[in-house]
Amino acid sequence: MEPQNLTxxxxxxxxxxxxxxELQLLLFGLFLSLYLVTVLGNLLIILAVGSDSHLHxxxxxxxxxxxxxxxxxxxxxxxxxxxxxxxxxxxxxHAGCLTQVSFFSLFGCLDSLLLxxxxxxxxxxxxxxxHYPAIMRPRLCGLLVLMSLLISLxxxxxxxxxxxxxxxxxxxxxxxxxxxxxxxxxxxxxxxLRNTILIYSLxxxxxxxxxxxxxxxxxxxxxxxxxxPSADGKSKAFSTCxxxxxxxxxxxxxxxxxxxxxxxxxxxxKGAAASVMYTVVTPMxxxxxxxxxxxxxxxxxxxxxxxxx
Length: 309
What we know:
The protein has helices at residues 21-51, 58-87, 94-127, 132-135, 138-164, 181-187, 193-226, 231-264, 268-274, 276-292, 295-308; strands at 3-5, 11-14, 91-93, 167-169, 173-174. The strands form two sheets. A three-stranded mixed sheet has the order 3-2-5. Strands 1-4 form a two-stranded antiparallel ribbon. It is built from eleven helices and five strands. The chain is mainly alpha-helical.
């Protein structure tokens, strides 16, 4: 087959999760419901934090930023999949594919960095409670989110430039429901050794550093909590970071699970099905995890719903 550069390709084919027409109708209803719940849940978190002055604290500022990133993360992949299911089309333009790669990398990296920032916030709150207001000032909080965004933009730009330089054969079929850089590298006709090394290096840097920060923060947090003499004090300290720890485990656990399943399973479709967990399910569950375990947030959400009613 004739090789061509990505910029010269007219379109790619996203094979999706299934070719069965009856199953596609079921999947359309399921993913539309999951997407609406994801967007509604995360927007409610943002509205609750913005409308309640009691929630104008660093922890809730970071939470609203995470909710915004989760909304973008889901919006990058699900709407295009729903459109393809509705129109019975599998095509995606080269510009659309590059856009998905860019925004998927952007919001995925931003999620990871924000979780690390939130771990640092919990570390300061538990290990240095008396200095917390002086350390976590609004200027520092804004700077941490801005730096996370700039680093994520750098990661996104690197992925976009890397994929745009790949050479493909005609009629490229992607065994996934969205364009992902590792999948495109596997399908390229040109030598991809440098691209493979680069993408693993990016993963190690932009994924490994936040994970290291989270592990360090929670090591110090656990060490500090164990020194608390009373059981009630330990329980209160753990409750302040329980929701964040659950979200961290869900985000990285599903990501690692998808990587392992794609490495072990010979079927690319099974890897695509497994990736639903971290692209769809995780952003949907985050608002529930935080709201169910947080009385202040539940009160703010109840006020919003009462006003709407």
